[in-house]
Design goal:
By secondary structure, the protein is mainly α. 65% of the residues lie in helices and 4% in strands.
Length: 270
């Protein structure tokens, strides 16, 4: 584990931020390629990029602070407020950021008369690839770690950030593997004429989000890092479960809408 790349009296460079930079560059590159291949306007994306990044970060940070409320407000004094803005503590919520991202992006698409569902189909695989790289950064940073295991691939983390001194599940590596598989599968499916057809827009993107969420939910059963417990249940597990239900509902509504539209079109052709 190498949580720090460079540390001096005036500057500290965390490994996770290096991986985050690589993740962003890789994700943006794939997004541009997929956007061009699907005749989507990159000018629209570039025009909202700064606001999109800002609101995504706000959502990720706000959710992380809420989940770890006791950590940030243990003394309930004015001194606790600045801790919210200490972003170098690496506390960001993936699902909080994702929710904020898609809420802002949906309304931006609506305002600029862009096809939100087509954009979703290209953003999701690019985003999941970026997440896969980010998970490797989490591994080297010693965060999002697993619970003790006797499996031969258990790893030891010699770090004060990790509370276990015995081998633990390398959940970050698990996340890298399933994220990569999902992203590659989506990009492979995206080359199929059936999924590229206009009437099926959105299904692949929603399906990708759902698949990632299910694997992330399973991962929670192997996690060993501290978080708030609600009735003895890890709070991220509850949030992800609700997110899966929400994603399933969106997929169902979108599929039904497409199915009804297809049925009406066929009747008109007759």
């Amino acid at each position: 584990m190498y949580p720090l790349i460079l540390q001096s009296k005036f500057f500290t460079l965390h490994t996770i931020w290096i991986f985050l930079g690589i993740a962003i560059i890789t994700g943006v590159y794939i997004l541009i390629k997929l956007s061009i291949n699907n005749s989507l306007k990159l000018q629209f994306l570039s025009s909202i990029s700064l606001k999109l990044i800002f609101w995504t970060f706000v959502g990720a940070r706000a959710t992380a602070v809420l989940i770890n409320f006791r950590t940030y407000f243990y003394d309930f004094g004015l001194d606790s407020i600045p801790r919210i803005f200490f972003i170098w503590d690496n506390e960001l919520s993936l699902f909080g950021g994702a929710i904020a991202f898609f809420i802002y992006f949906y309304f931006a698409c609506k305002k600029e008369e862009q096809n939100f569902w087509r954009w979703l189909d290209v953003i999701v695989p690019a985003g999941i690839i970026a997440l896969a790289i980010g998970h490797m950064g989490a591994f080297f940073g010693g965060i999002n770690y697993g619970s003790p295991t006797s499996l031969p691939w258990g790893v030891n983390f010699a770090s004060p950030l990790v509370k276990y001194t015995v081998p633990i599940h390398p959940t970050q590596i698990y996340a890298f593997v399933y994220s990569s598989i999902i992203a590659i599968s989506l990009m492979t499916l995206f080359s199929s004429p059936k999924f590229k057809a206009e009437e099926n827009t959105g299904l692949m993107g929603i399906g990708g989000i759902g698949a990632y969420s299910v694997f992330r939910f399973i991962e929670e059963f192997l996690r060993g890092d501290d978080t708030i417990l609600i009735l003895g249940i890890r709070s991220p597990k509850i949030i992800i479960f609700l997110f899966i239900i929400f994603t399933g509902a969106i997929f169902y509504l979108r599929y039904n809408k497409i199915h009804k539209r297809s049925a009406i079109f066929k009747q008109r052709k007759k």
